[in-house]
Amino acid sequence: MTQCAPPVWPVGFLAGSVCAGIKKQGVPDLALILGESPLTAAAVFTKNLVCAAPIQLSKSHLAYSHTKISALLINSGCANAATGAEGLTRARRATTALAALLHVDATTVLTNSTGVIGVQLPVDRIEAALPSLVASVQAGSCESFARAIMTTDTRPKWSTRTIHWTVGATAHTCRVTGVAKGAGMIHPNMATMIAVLATDATCTPHDLDALLRHAVDRSFHRISVDGDTSTNDSVFALASCTSGTPPAAELAEAFDAVAQDLALLVVRDGEGFERGIEVRVIGAKTSDDALQVARTIAMSLLVRTAVTGGDPNWGRILAAAGRAGVAFNPETVRLSTGGIELFAHGAPTASDLAAVRLAFTAELVRIELDLSMGSASDHFWSCGLTKRYVEINADYTT
User: Is 199 among the residues known to form the active site?
Assistant: First the structure.
């Protein structure tokens, strides 16, 4: 997937970023999204029991504000997780200070943080930077916001879709634009990163929540880089409700497409990334069975290291499928990689070894397993496990 030029935010959104001195590198590390009027909001959050202070605060604010919010504040460089009561106090101080500048209720400000766990949020620096941050917001490109929320990411991540429809003789347009950060500590159990999906379509809170959850389930819940679910995972959906109501199916398709783009960009920016893995399981009895097998294969350390080395050791794929806890008959399964059949009728096929090696060295190694048990299917994405991944995470705090 080639990253496109940065898209613009939908109508009704303003965004900006500043350097608050949270990161050592002296780069933008504090980002803000505002609505020109109150925004409809929905969110999904990490299920990690060690839930970061900003997540706890945003959950309570969403519940109290009845999904109408004014702002979303995100810092990078410090996760404010495992920081006790003091961490929650500092998160609340940041949102309260921002609310005072905006002349809004503090419960209409959502927040999140990303960075090192177990470090107290430098809230004094954030409070000092807030006037400049508010002054920086503008309509237009999402690039500055996307860059300010990065941690170990090597590039910003964004995606957009435009919906066109007519009512009578009148043409209408709305947009769904998303940004995300994430490169490590990526594994499904909610969202596995921080992302924002913004739209100017008119949505009820209930409909926006449904759109978000469906999109997350088909994208961020289908990726893994390292098997670790973060303390700060969140995906926020925000609607300015300024451009009318598009056909429901087209809006859902746009949400799904943007979320899937972002999820794949996260995988392809996985720490130490060299090549990706796409596992599709077809012919399963149920979708749950298909997902379980696909996830097990994609997360197998042996499969992932084989892909890293470009080694066509496809027996590891079958072995991972066989331990997934889903019943199937090995005599009837069919396995292919890059469209080349490797195993069928209980035995290896007469495939071209050179072509198979080439398939295992593609930027995205595509694995398909047909269980021949039914008509259900599902998919999962991961990436090779490299020496560089170990180096990055061995030196993360130093």
Answer: no
The CATH homologous superfamily for domain 13-268 is L-amino peptidase D-ALA esterase/amidase (3.60.70.12)
Q: Calculate the average pLDDT of the chain.
A: 89
pLDDT of residue 273: 58
Of these residues, 192, 199, 202, 308, which one is catalytic?
A: 192
pTM above 0.85, yes or no: no
Could you tell me how many residues make up the chain? 398
Give the amino acid at 324.
Answer: A
**Lowest-confidence segment of 89-98, 131-140, 305-314, 361-370 by average pLDDT:** 305-314
- Give the mean pLDDT of 374-397: 72
**365 Cβ neighbours under 8 A, 6+ residues apart:** 275, 276, 277, 278, 307, 337, 338, 359
CA pair distance 277, 366, nearest whole angstrom: 6
C-alpha to C-alpha distance for 235 and 92, rounded to whole angstroms: 20
Residue 238, pLDDT score? 98
Domain boundaries for CATH 3.60.70.12 within the chain: 13-268
- Is 276-394 a domain of CATH 3.10.20.340? yes
